């Protein structure tokens, strides 16, 4: 039963429930105020009647003879009952018809004395009269010449009080109904106006559900509940839009990645397949041709293996696996890499220099006061991965700059933020601004004329950026002073 009631209530619109609650609370408040007002007014009027009774009753009790109630208004009722049973009253037939007679209790002299003249209320004995109740005071007196004891009842009809309270009650009820009705209408208008913002939120949500993620909730004053709600919803919608945009961009990159990977793998596979078909068809009729073909097949397989290995490295880096943490000396890696580059091209002058030496205009603040290469610059990270970064960078220098051009590996600490900085500088043709902005994209080759044999797979710089990123570092490219390219990476100490 309770669940059914809750279900029905939940189906009522919010605005109707709010207006109903406000109206009920207003009615309850007015009802309580009306009852309190009626009670206060009634008690006040009763006290006035009691004071009037006391003022009139005391002289009557002191001098009950010779006339009963002489000099009193006609609405007073006086009855004297002596101990001998003699009953006297001032009520005339006309007064009885108009006011009726109170139902007086039978009290003894002692009971009347014990009441101490406190007024009390009794009903009327006649249903035809206008008076429904009487206010009565019972006093003791001595009557007759013998001083016989008697009880004197003095009663005053409460017809005026009853009418006043009745009129007041009706007035309060009618005015209360009017106030509740007016309050309900006002509440409906205010609730309707307040919920207008919620309807705009509902409309915005419907548009977003239809696929328009650019929609935003209309702003409201910041100090209000709707203002806070609108700000929170808009912030959430901005995050959702960015997340969807990032997801779409990621899907585009993934499709491009798969397409590029397929394209890169197609060439060595086609090479291997083509030479295999030549061998099957008997076109390789001499030993020299067979040897040359096997060499080409081996070279294609080697390039394909390198490409697959690079893809595997990127896939593992994309998984976000935590890197091994050990002390790695960047100064030692820099010296080893310089020797490796010199071994690749003995005609090339390769030097490890301090960070301030030979920097370009975009170089970080040259803040090495000693002008010396640090003997040791230790960071935390994976030694093999960081070595791979330098291997890829010097490999690019060897492949893409003229033989014999100098190269430097700069090393130092940037004082303003306390990070290790390593730069690989060449003095080759450099890159355009557009090429520099795309150099870390996968399968991107700055020079479209470079073949896969001479230019690599196009994944080397992407791997470098991914490795630096997993170490909490940053990588960028900038022009080298005098021409060339500088690849700068920063790593936290």
UniProtKB/TrEMBL annotation:
TM region positions: 21-46, 167-191
Cofactor list: a divalent metal cation
Subcellular location(s) per record: Cell membrane
Domain Histidine kinase: 260-493
Superkingdom assignment: Bacteria
This protein's UniProt keywords: Kinase, Membrane, Phosphoprotein, Transferase, Transmembrane, Transmembrane helix, Two-component regulatory system
Reaction(s) the record says it catalyses: ATP + protein L-histidine = ADP + protein N-phospho-L-histidine
Residue span, HAMP domain: 192-245
Cited SMART domains: HAMP, HATPase_c, HisKA
PANTHER family (UniProt xref): SENSOR HISTIDINE KINASE TRCS, SENSOR HISTIDINE KINASE YKOH
Protein EC: 2.7.13.3
Positions of region (Disordered): 356-376
GO CC list: plasma membrane
Matches recorded under InterPro entries: HAMP_dom (IPR003660), HATPase_C_sf (IPR036890), HATPase_dom (IPR003594), His_kinase_dom (IPR005467), HisK_dim/P_dom (IPR003661), HisK_dim/P_sf (IPR036097), Sig_transdc_His_kin-like_C (IPR004358), TCS_sensor_his_kinase (IPR050428)
Protein name: histidine kinase
The organism of origin for this protein: Promicromonospora soli
Keyword Transit peptide listed: no
First-tier enzyme category under EC: transferase
Gene Ontology molecular function, alphabetical: calcium ion binding; phosphorelay sensor kinase activity
């Amino acid at each position: 039963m309770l669940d059914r009631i809750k279900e029905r209530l939940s189906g009522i619109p919010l605005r109707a429930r709010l207006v109903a609650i406000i109206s009920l609370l207003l009615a309850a408040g007015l009802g309580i105020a009306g009852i309190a007002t009626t009670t206060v007014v009634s008690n006040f009027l009763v006290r006035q009647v009691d004071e009037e009774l006391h003022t009139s009753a005391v002289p009557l009790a002191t001098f009950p003879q010779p006339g009963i109630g002489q000099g009193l208004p006609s609405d007073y009722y006086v009855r004297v009952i002596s101990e001998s049973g003699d009953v006297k009253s001032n009520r005339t037939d006309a007064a009885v018809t108009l006011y009726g007679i109170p139902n007086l209790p039978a009290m003894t002299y002692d009971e009347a004395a014990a009441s101490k003249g406190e007024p009390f209320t009794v009903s009327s004995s006649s249903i035809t009269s206008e008076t429904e109740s009487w206010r009565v005071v019972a006093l003791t007196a001595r009557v007759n010449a013998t001083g016989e004891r008697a009880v004197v009842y003095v009663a005053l009809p409460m017809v005026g009080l009853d009418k006043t309270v009745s009129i007041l009650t009706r007035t309060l009820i009618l005015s209360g109904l009017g106030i509740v009705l007016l309050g309900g209408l006002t509440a409906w208008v205010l609730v309707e106006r307040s919920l207008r913002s919620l309807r705009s939120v509902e409309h915005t949500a419907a548009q977003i559900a239809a696929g328009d993620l650019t929609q935003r909730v209309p702003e409201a004053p910041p100090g209000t509940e709707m203002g806070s709600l609108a700000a929170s919803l808009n912030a959430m919608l901005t995050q959702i839009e960015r997340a969807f945009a990032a997801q779409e961009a990621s899907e585009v990159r993934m499709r491009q990645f798969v397409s590029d990977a397929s394209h890169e793998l197609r060439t060595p596979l086609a090479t291997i397949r083509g030479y295999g078909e030549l061998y099957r068809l008997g076109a390789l009729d001499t030993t020299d041709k067979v040897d040359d073909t096997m060499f080409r097949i081996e070279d294609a397989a080697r390039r394909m293996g390198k490409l697959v290995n690079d893809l595997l490295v990127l896939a593992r880096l994309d998984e976000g696996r935590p890197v091994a943490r050990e002390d790695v000396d960047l100064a030692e890696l820099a010296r080893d890499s310089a020797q490796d580059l010199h071994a690749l091209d003995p005609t090339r002058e390769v030097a490890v220099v301090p960070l301030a030496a030979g920097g370009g205009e975009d170089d970080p603040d040259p803040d090495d006061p000693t002008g010396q290469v640090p003997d040791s610059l230790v960071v935390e990270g994976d030694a093999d991965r960081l070595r791979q970064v330098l291997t890829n960078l010097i490999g690019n220098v060897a492949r893409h700059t003229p033989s014999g051009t100098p190269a430097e590996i700069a090393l130092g600490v940037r004082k303003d933020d306390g990070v290790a900085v390593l730069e690989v500088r060449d003095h080759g043709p450099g890159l355009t601004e557009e090429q520099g902005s795309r150099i870390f994209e996968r399968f991107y080759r700055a020079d479209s004329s470079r073949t896969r044999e001479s230019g690599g797979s196009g994944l080397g710089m992407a791997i470098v950026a991914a490795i630096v990123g997993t170490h909490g570092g940053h990588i960028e490219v900038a022009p080298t002073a005098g021409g060339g390219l500088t690849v700068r990476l920063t790593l936290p100490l």
